[in-house]
Write a structure and sequence with these properties.
The structure is a single chain. By secondary structure, this protein is an alpha+beta fold. The protein has a seven-stranded mixed β-sheet with strand order 9-10-3-2-1-8-11. Strands 21-26-27-22-28-29-30 form a seven-stranded antiparallel β-sheet. Strands 15-14-13-12-16-19 form a six-stranded mixed β-sheet. The longest helix has 27 residues.
């Protein structure tokens, strides 16, 4: 038996029959060498299911229908429909839907179906003989081992895949590829077209080719020789690989990059994510930028230079608005610098992924869900893999996403369009407070699913309140007590595994499990998911609201004021009207006692009300020594999700912001800096008047005209010519930009209106920045102190003259 990890599940048609192909990496006992494998299996016939009552109608269409021991999720006996090839399924499925006949799991791709039916994820055990598969003919890498129709079992091995980062440089006028850098798999090399002026010596591993076709052929050969499992880059699919395909087509060069014959190609990705994906036999392509985004890493800008500066402290070796022309000129006149620039870009991508631990995270997510590494960010697909596997063990089938089969009964907190209420938010009590505790329910929605057995399989659409065999949610949805549903069972496995990972300091596994657990609620409220049912999603949020309000009342029973609450957290004043502990240590001790009592009381309340065991865990998340809850700008209560506080003590004290200008991209650095300083002074009881008057005077006198202090940054959500009804400032500035504007627009406000920051032609409108950037961030602080903005900055004296 051999342990392995699946990198790419796919299939191929051979002699009129579909053959499952599983490419991957083998574990080598006592050997660090990297060995690849291919599992071939031709024993499966493509099929899907329909209701047994519809079998004759399906046969009338010429389809092969057989009896099945499965039932549908909504209780009908199922029949199996067989097709000759996987590609025949969509047309037949759609034809049946048009005829009003629902299908079940007819949208599940053939190779994924193979894994689901066998209960396999990414890590497997291969039981069976193999034959050598690697050959060097025409420099095709092949694989090391080929297994024909082996027995496959679930495994537990996690590999370290070989990753190759690529980056191309092009002639901005002709799109010709000038060079390709390859970094990873033990090399850092550049393939470059000879500009006719190349020096005799070039830095590092550099190969000079006579023309572009030679470059393309050498690139394909080097990828096969280096034999990576994953290929990455920055916008690698939409730019690098797209351009390489277009140029190869121009010169009739076959770009074979895989572990089997077949040219690189792109196709539109199915599902709600859209976009394109690259297809390379035996390898996966993961875009570095998308990998960061799907791992919930936030950046103000997503160009490579900015991200590298933020993550690594270094960036591209050439920057600027005319970089395209500069790159072309450098290729012509300074090839050594050009080669270094290209090589650096490829290296930066891999360094960013390494620094953030994103390849191990993606491997772990693949290990948990069974999805290929390139697709681990798909929450719906992840739940699909896990849930369908468990359903299969119950001999139950779920509806096809493309239509029919799942009850549309509407209950409770949602309307006919499928919308339902989300997390509950308590009305904030605006004001400045000392010693505020924040309590947080750990993984609230997954914990509610576990506690109240919330699950598609366990949902009883016509269940009645008061039935002892059912658990009734506050929104009216009911769920079977026994046996526990699939989602609760999955979470009962995942939560302890996350606790073990956290205790062991395994941040990668802990983060991967957290991402997966949090997706369970979200997909139930998403119409693209086959298990979408607003009543079920609303049951989760209704329990959340009930628990939050009960906890608030219990806190007040203990004699404390609740200042604010949002979905899974509560802000509690340590004492009544400020009467409480006066130091951080005593406040934290009070918080821990309160947390313990609340969790104990909540467990008793849940047991008495629903006769279930509480899986809810309450944490003391943070202690604010000072907290400011802001009023709404328009008056009439507190502003939700907008507050600032001071955490820590002494030199370790830090001002943290939530939902405010200091953490938002669309405010200028000037506003962010002023806000941070004002709140620091407020929380440390330092005067603000002189500072504010001085900063306003500096802005009016042009002291901040240099650098990017006055620069706005905002994204274009659609093409410039699509803005017809209104013209926002960033759109007006982008239309004045002589360079082709990127998706993110940097602009300033001048006396002539908005202008691109890099091409400002008129003086700054300093008064705009005073009134629209400084005043809004200053007034909440001044309101607490009983000050007036105009009076503090000296404008009231000027106004009194008129």
């Amino acid at each position: 038996m051999r342990r392995g990890f699946i990198v790419q599940p796919t299939y191929r048609i051979e002699q009129g029959r579909a053959v499952v192909l599983l490419y991957g990496v083998l574990a080598n006992e006592g050997d660090d060498s990297h060995q690849s494998f291919l599992v071939r299996d031709d024993r499966r016939t493509p099929n899907f299911l329909v209701r047994a009552d519809d079998a004759e109608s399906v046969r009338a269409l010429g389809a092969r229908v057989h009896d099945s021991d499965h039932t549908t999720l909504d209780g009908h006996r199922a029949a199996r429909v067989e097709v000759d090839l996987p590609g025949n399924t969509p047309n037949l499925r759609d034809h049946l839907h048009r005829a009003g006949l629902p299908t079940y799991e007819a949208d599940v791709r053939f190779a994924r179906r193979y894994l689901i039916d066998r209960g396999l994820r990414a890590s497997i055990v291969i039981d069976g003989p193999s034959r050598p598969g690697r050959h060097e003919r025409n420099d095709r890498a092949g694989v090391d081992h080929i297994f024909e129709n082996p027995r496959l079992l679930p495994g537990e091995w996690t590999p370290h895949p070989r990753v190759l980062s690529i980056d191309i440089e092009t002639d901005m006028h002709t799109d010709a590829v000038l060079s390709v850098a390859l970094h990873g798999c033990g090399v850092s090399e550049v393939l470059v077209v000879d500009p006719g002026t190349s020096p005799t010596e070039l830095p590092g591993e550099t190969t000079v080719l006579r023309d572009e076709p030679s470059l393309l052929r050498r690139f394909a050969r080097r990828v096969r020789q280096l034999d990576p499992d994953l290929i990455t880059g920055w916008s690698v699919v939409d730019f690098d690989l797209r351009v390489l395909i277009e140029r190869a087509r121009r010169y009739r060069v076959r770009l074979e990059l895989g572990r089997a014959p077949g040219a690189l190609r792109l196709r539109t990705r199915g599902g709600p994510r859209g976009g394109r994906e690259a297809l390379i036999h035996g390898r996966m392509v993961v875009d570095g930028m998308e990998l960061m985004r799907s791992s919930f890493i936030r950046m103000e800008r997503w160009n490579l230079d900015f991200v590298a500066q933020q993550v690594l402290g270094e960036g591209k070796t050439m920057t600027g608005s005319n970089r395209g022309e500069a790159i072309l000129e450098t290729w012509r006149s300074d090839l050594a610098t050009f080669v270094d620039y290209n090589r650096t870009d490829a290296r930066l991508v891999l360094d960013i992924l390494d620094e953030q631990g994103l390849i191990p995270l993606s491997v772990e997510r693949s290990h948990l869900t069974g999805l290929p590494i390139e697709r681990v960010s798909g929450a719906i697909a992840a739940v699909d893999m896990l849930y369908l596997t468990e359903l299969g063990r119950e001999k139950i089938v779920a509806p096809s996403v493309a239509g029919g089969g799942w009850s549309e009964l509407e209950i409770g907190d949602h309307d006919a369009s499928g919308h339902f209420e989300g997390g509950y938010v308590l009305e904030p009590r605006p004001g400045l407070y000392r010693h505020v505790l924040t309590f947080d329910f750990k993984s609230l929605y997954p914990s509610l699913i576990r506690t109240f057995h919330i699950d598609p399989l366990g949902w009883v659409p016509d269940g009645r309140r008061g039935d002892p065999d059912l658990i009734a949610a506050p929104n009216g949805a009911t769920f079977r007590r026994h046996p526990p549903g699939i989602l609760p069972r999955l979470l009962d496995d995942l939560m302890p595994r996350r606790a073990v990972a956290q205790a062991a300091g395994d941040k990668v596994a802990s983060h991967a499990i957290k991402i997966l657990m949090n997706s369970f609620y979200g997909v139930l409220g998403t119409s693209a998911c086959r298990f979408h049912q607003p009543a079920i999603a609303a049951a989760i949020t209704s329990f959340g609201r009930t628990i939050l309000l009960w906890t608030k009342a219990r806190i007040e029973h203990h004699g404390h004021r609740v200042l604010y609450g949002d979905t899974d957290s509560l802000f509690v004043l340590a004492g009544t009207d400020g009467d409480g502990p006066t130091d951080g240590e005593a406040t934290r001790a009070l918080g821990e006692r309160l947390r313990h009592d609340l969790e104990h009381d909540l467990a008793r309340y849940i047991a008495e009300t629903w006769d279930v065991e509480s899986k809810l865990v309450l944490e003391l998340e943070r202690l604010y020594s000072r907290l400011l809850l802001l009023p709404m700008r328009s008056g009439g209560g507190g502003a939700r999700k907008r507050y600032a506080g001071l955490v820590g003590h002494g030199d370790d004290a830090e001002v943290v912001f939530t939902g405010m200008e200091a953490v938002r991209r669309d405010w200028t650095p000037l506003a962010k800096d002023v806000q941070r300083e004002l709140y620091r002074r407020l929380f440390f009881d330092q005067p603000v008047d002189q500072y504010l008057a001085e900063i306003v005077a500096e802005v009016r006198n042009g002291v901040h005209d240099h650098g990017n202090t006055l620069t706005y940054r905002k994204a274009l959500r659609k093409p410039l010519d699509a803005y017809t009804a209104t013209t926002p400032p960033h759109v007006a500035a982008a239309r004045k930009d002589p360079d082709k504007p990127s998706r993110i627009v940097d602009y300033v406000i001048t006396r002539a209106g908005p202008e691109p920051a890099a091409h400002r032609a008129n003086p700054y409108d300093h008064e705009h920045y005073v009134q629209k950037q400084i005043r809004p961030v200053a007034e909440p602080v001044l309101a607490v102190l009983g000050r007036d903005f105009d009076r503090v900055v000296g404008d009231d004296a000027q106004l009194s003259l008129f």
